[in-house]
Model the fold of this input.
Amino acid sequence: MGNYDPKALFKLGYGLYVVTSHDGVRDNGLIVNTVMQVTDAPSRVAVAINKRNYSHDVIKNSGILNVNCLSTEAPFKVFEVFGFQSGRDVDKFADCTPQRTANGLVMLPRYINAVLSLTVEQYVDLGSHGMFICALTDAQVVSDAESMTYAYYHANVKPKPAPAKKKGYVCKICGYVYEGDPLPEDFICPWCKHGAADFEELK
Ligand code: FE
Done:
């Protein structure tokens, strides 16, 4: 018999990124932690995106994306704008005058320390997610600030939940609060798209 402690997966180290793309009409962007350089010479970068996210379809169609590497200067607002709403419904760049890289896609004007421009070479269907294996076409360092890690986000950026008055459940990933009891087993967090397993009871 093997062991299966899901907390072991939290020991993997991750960064946080805003992946930007363009659907032909509008710029779009979302927060992901699943970015990894997988080969050197030539450099290839893998990016996995949940199929529920609009950006998945946009990148599958357009074949290009930018990875904006968030720094520890990024405030919670960046996560609210890019992580907790869908580009299907809102223009995430309405309040922002973005800069652009050579491929025409947005690079965030602030809160990043590097930007990578990628062209999709292979698509791998992973069921819930699609993985884009990409060639690196452009890479710029824009600041010396430290990279935002997932651990840093949880410790320093994500708001602490307010003391609960009602019965409910809080998403351990993003802090979304579901009011009610019980939490439906098939519940999907409307902000970060994680499932019921990533919620815990409000105390
Ligand atoms: Fe969530």
Residues 171, 173-174, 176, 189, 191-192, 194 surround fe (iii) ion (CB under 6 Å). The chain has two domains: 6-157, 168-201. The first helix runs from residue 54 to 62. The chain has three helices and twelve strands.
